[in-house]
Amino acid sequence: MKELSILIGGKAGFGIDKASSIIGDIMKNLGYYVYIYRDYPSLIRGGHTFSIIRISSQKIYSHRDQVDFVLALNQDTLNFHKHRLKKDSVVIYDSDSVKLDDMPGGMKQGIGIAIGKIIKDENASEIMRNTCIIGCFCKAAGIAWDVLEATFREDVARELELNLKIALSGYNGSKESMKIERLPEKGLPVITGNEAISRGLIKAGLNAYISYPMTPSSGILHYMASVAEKSSLKVIHPENEIAVILMALGFSYAGGKAAVGTSGGGFCLMTEGLSLAAMAELPVLIVMGQRPGPSTGLPTYTSQTELHFVLNAGQGEFSKFVAAPGDLEEAYYWSGIGLNMAWKYQIPAIILSDKTLAEGNYSFDIEAVKEVKDEQPLARVFPPAKGKAIKVNSYEHDENGITTEDPVITKAMQDKRLQKEKALSEELGNYETVKIYGNEGSRSAIVSWGSNKGVAREAAEKMGLKLIHVPVLWPFPLKKFQDAIKGVETLIVIENNATGQFVKLMQLFGLKADKKILKYDGRPFSVDELEQELKKL
Amino acid sequence: MEDINLGTYAVNTWCPGCGNFAILNAIKSVLKSLSEEGTPLENIVLVSGIGCHAKIADYINVNSFYSIHGRVVPAAEGIKIAKPDLKVIGFSGDGDSYGEGLEHLLFAAKRDMDITMIIHDNRVYGLTTGQYTPTSPLGYKGKSTPRGTAEHPINPLELMLSSGASFIARGTSHGIDLLKKIFKEAIMHKGFSIVDVLQVCVTYYNMYEYYDKRVYELEGHDPSDRAGALERIKEWDYNKDSKIALGVFYKEVKNG
User: Fold this and answer.
1) Do the Cβ atoms of B82 and A280 come within 8 Å?
2) Distance from C-alpha of A60 to C-alpha of A33, rounded to nearest angstrom
3) Which of A403, A473, A511, B90 lies deepest, with the highest CB count within 10 Å?
C-alpha cells in the first residue's frame, strides 16, 4: 500500500478547511483514495485548526499519528505537531510568521516561503495564504502544475485567476523533495458523511429536510439547502428543534417524506416529538450526530455517547429503527433504507452519526452501494382524501383516531404499535445488519459500530484479527450477531465513550464482551493508536 | 342544500356551560358555509394542542391532528408547507400557545404562515384543575399561586402585532355570531391570522358577567391602520378594568 499523510494547520479563518479539501481533490485527481480528519475548535476566528489528509492506493477511513508533510501557516502548527514528524518529513512554512528551529533531532528539512509578502505584493486577501502554501506543497511533492490548476478550476469559485497566480508564486518558490506518482485509477469523489447521508435520503424520495443548525449535523442542512435551489426539495430552518420535529410530523401527516437532523442537545428537545411520532404513527427520519457531552461538551469533536439515549428517548414504549453507519457507503445506504423503513412501518427511524463520519471527508464509491429505492407506502391515505376525515392523535385512540381510555382498545393499540418492531426485525433478516471483515477465522475479534468501522477494519486486517461491524443497532440483529461471534474466544469491543454503551446493549441479550477499548477524549482513534491498544491486550 | 353532519361519535366531556361550546358551534357553522361555497371539507385540517380546548379535534368530523401541549403551531405549519392548498386551522389554549409554545406563535407570525390560530383564552389551566396562565390577571389565586400571582399578564395581541401577524382579532364565547364572522374572515385571510377568544371556564374562572359588562364591538375602526390597531389593542391589558374591544383589530392587505 502506497500512502502518505499531510497536515495543514493555522488559525481558524485561514481557510484550513477549504485548503484540505483542495489537497484532497488534487490527490483524487492523481488517482488516490483520500481521508481527511478535521480538527477545529468551537470559534470563528483564531484558535488552532488543522486537518490531516491521508492518501493511499487502497481505501482508507482513518488518519495516522505521523505525517510526511506539515504545512504550517502559523507557529502553533509546528509547535503542536512536532511529535508527528518523522526523520524524512518535510515542513513547509510561512517564513514571515513561522520560525523553523527547535525541531526534533535537529530536523531542518524545511521549505520556507515568504507567504505574507507574496499576498501583500499581489494585493490579495489574507485567506489566500492557504492557496500559496498549496502551491508550495505541490512543487515539493512533485505534483505537476497542470494537476493543481485543473483542481483549482473544479474547486475554486471566487477569484480563480488571482488564486492561481498566488498558487504559482508558491509553486515557483518551492523545491521538489519527493515525487508522488500518478496512479492509473480514476479517483473517487471526496465527500463528507453529511453529504452521503443527504444523498441517500434524497434517493429514497425525501421531500423536506427540516433542521436547526447544530454541529456536527449542520452540513446536511447546508447541502440540502443547496440542492433545494434546483429541485422541489423543501428545506426549512425553524425557531428550535421542538418546532423542527413537529413541523416534520405535520409534513409527514400531509403525505410528505421528511427528515430532520441535530446533535444530542437538539435531540433532547425533540424527544416529545419522537414519542408523538410513535403514538400518531407518523414516519420521520432523525439524523442524530454525536459529539462529546454532557451538555455543550466539546461541540466540534467526536463521540459515541448517545446510543442508549436514542434507544430509550421518548416517553412510552414504541417501535423504532436505529442504524449507525460506519462509512460513506453505509451512510448513504442506511439513510435511504431508514427513510423507507420509517414509511413502511410508520415509525421513527434514527441515523446515529458522529462528528468523525459527519464532517470527515472520504472517497465515496457509489458503485459499491446496494440500490436504494424511493418506496411508496401502500396503506396510507393523506389529506385531502375525498369524503374522508383523517385523524391522528397523541392520546391513545381508536382506529379512527378518536381519543379513548378503553382498556381493551388501549391494549390492542399498544400491541399493534409494538408488533411493527417484530415485523421490521424479521424483514431486516434480509439485510446486511452485521458485517464481517479481516481474518474471518481468527479467534480474536474486534466489534465496532459507527465511524470506528474504518479504523477497526484497517487494524484488524493488519493484525490478522476478525472484525464484526454492526451498522443496525435496533432492532438488534441478535441472530446474525450470535452467528458472527461463534468460535470467537476473545471479543474486543471498541467505542468512543467512557462506559461501553455497545457492551451494555449486548448485555441486554445476555452477551458478554471480553475486553473493551474505550476512547473518550473527543478525538477518533488513529490507526496507530488502535493497533497499540490492541497489542496491549 | 345537503345537510352536512360535522359531528362524531366521541362523547363531549366539556363542563356544562363551558365557553368551548360556542367555539365548537361557531367553527362548525363556518366549516359548513365554506363547504357550501365550494371548499371541500377534506381540504380542511384542524390542529389542536393539549388542554380542554384540544378535544375539539375529536368532536368535528374533518381531518385533524390532535398534537401535544404547546406545539399546535409547528404541526400546522408542517401541514401547510407540505400541502399549501389545505386550509389549516389551529386551536390552542392560552397555556398552550401563550405559555408552553409562545415561541412558535411568534415565529409563525414573523413568517406570516398562511394558517389560522384560534386561541381558547380562558386565562386559567382547566384540565390541570386551576393554575394561573400567561393571561391571568395580577394577583390571580390559583392552585400554584395560593397567595395570588406576582406577575402581570402579557397582552398577546400586542405581542402578535409586534411579531408581524397580518390578521389579529378578538371575540368572546358569549358572542357566537361575532365569532362566526371573525373565524370566517380569519380563515379566508391570506397570511397568519390569530383570534383570541375570551372563552369562559365555568369551573375555574367564570368571567361571563365580568366580560358582559365590559365588551364592545369595534366600530369605525380601520383595521389597516397599524397605529390605530395598537391603540385599540392596548386599551385593555388583560389586567386593569377597562372596556374590552372585540372584532378585527388589524388586517394587513398584502400584494400578491
Assistant:
1) no
2) 7
3) B90
Is the pLDDT assigned to residue B256 strictly greater than 60?
no
Across residues A143-171, what is the average pLDDT? 96
pLDDT in tens, A160-198: 999 999 999 999 999 999 999 999 999 999 999 999 999
Strands of B72-165, DSSP E: 87-93, 116-120
Tracing cell 448513504 back to the chain, one arrives at A332
Residue pairs between chains A and B whose CB atoms are closer than 8 Å: 139
Alpha-helical segments (H) within A364-515? 407-428, 452-463, 478-485, 501-508
**Burial per residue of B51-63, b for 16 or more beta-carbon CB atoms within 10 angstroms, e otherwise:** bbbbbbbbbbbbb
pLDDT digits (tens, 9 = 90+) for B63-118: 999 999 999 999 999 999 999 999 999 999 999 999 999 999 999 999 999 999 99
Interchain contact, A240 vs B103, CB within 8 Å: yes
Q: Which positions in chain A have a beta carbon within 8 angstroms of at least one beta carbon in chain B?
A: 207-208, 210, 234, 236, 238-240, 242-244, 246-256, 258, 272-273, 276, 280, 382-395, 397, 401-403
The sheet with strand B116-120 has its strands ordered as: A391-393, B63-66, B44-48, B87-93, B116-120, B193-198, B167-172, B244-251, B215-217
Find, in chain A, the residue whose alpha carbon is nearest to that of B40. Answer: A386
SS (H, E, C) A219-267: HHHHHHHHHHCCCCCEEECCCCHHHHHHHHHHHHHCCCCEEEEEEHHHH
Minimal Cα distance from B8: which residue of A? A402
- The alpha-carbon gap from B230 to the nearest alpha carbon of chain A, in Å, equals 26
Beta strands in A244-347 (DSSP E): 258-263, 284-290, 321-323
Ordered DSSP codes for B224-251: T-HHHHHHHHHH--SSS---EEEEEEEE
- Cβ within 8 Å of residue A384, ≥6 positions away: B40, B42, B43, B63, B83, B85, B86
Q: Supply A473's cell numbers.
A: 443497532
Cα-based angle A447, A448, A449 (whole degrees, multiple of 5): 135
Are residues A253 and B42, on separate chains, in Cβ contact within 8 Å? Answer: no
User: Is there a contact between A448 and A52 (Cβ–Cβ < 8 Å)?
Assistant: no
Q: How far apart are CA A366 and CA A451, in angstroms?
A: 18
Cross-chain Cβ contact A389/B61 below 8 Å? yes
Largest separation between any pair of C-alpha atoms in chain A:
84
Mean pLDDT for all residues in chain A: 96
Q: Cα A210 to the chain's mean position, in Å?
A: 19
Residue B253 pLDDT = 78
User: Mind telling me how many Å the CA of A392 is from chain B's nearest CA?
Assistant: 5
DSSP assignments along B193-224, one per residue: EEEEEE--BTTTB--HHHHHHHEEE--S--TT
Maximum CA pair distance of chain B? 56
Alpha-carbon span B4 to A3, nearest angstrom: 75
Residue A108, CA atoms < 13 Å, CB-side half-sphere: 1
Residues of A in contact with B99 (CB under 8 A): none
Q: Considering only alpha carbons, which residue of chain B is nearest residue A232? A: B82
Q: What is the pLDDT of residues B208-235, one digit of tens each?
A: 999 999 999 999 999 999 999 999 999 9
